[in-house]
Amino acid sequence: MTNISIIFHSRSGNIYQLVEKAAQTARAAGAEVRVRKVAELPDPMILDKQAYQDLATATADIPEAGLDDLVWADAIMIGTPVHYGLPAPQILNFFDHTGPVAIPGKLMNKAVSAFASGSMPHAGQQATILALHNAFCHWGSVIVSNGSAAAVLHQPGNGAPYGTGTISRHEANSVTDDNLGAIEYQTLRTLQVAGALKRGLEPEPGITLVSEERLRKFGLDI
């Protein structure tokens, strides 16, 4: 069985719609699924306060993401709204705190994939996903992109090879059927790559990781 953590921040429900579809798809494929929201910040930027409150109510029972959710997973999917062409500050804050598991190599060889939602067709969805790819490289993870070959990616509402991106036009919960098809494909592809990595790395190759002395210099509790 493949373990997958789907970690997200959503502002008006569009990312959460994709998260729900990804989780449904993964469970149907036989995966063990954790859905986790990242912690809120003290003073978040909110445009649609009603949608934000409705979403907070809808996701109240979802646990906050922790480092254990990353270590546990074979596959990781990250969903974020676009914020000036970057991931949401809440997502970046979560990434900033992954050093204790990233530096010792505990995120190496995990299959990771990202998806985003922006207000307009060119609002920065692809730039946001690529920004997350930078962090995945530091983790030593294996980036799973959508590519361009799947038929669903050629539907009118899709098209990005980097990962699924939606166009909200500042409307809450406005994900289209095209987008849901794209995230379904992205989830299955991520699980496929994660399964192949898991099987192919048994037994694991002999890799010398960073020394305990070096870890102590980072102030990490090992």
From TrEMBL:
| Domain Flavodoxin-like per the UniProt entry, residue ranges | 4-222
Q: Which InterPro entries match?
A: Flavodoxin/NO_synth, Flavoprotein-like_sf, FMN_Rdtase-like_dom
Molecular function per GO: FMN binding; NAD(P)H dehydrogenase (quinone) activity
Q: Which domain of life is it from?
A: Bacteria
Quote a single Gene Ontology cellular component term: membrane
What Gene3D superfamilies does the record point to? 3.40.50.360
Designated name of the protein = Flavodoxin-like domain-containing protein
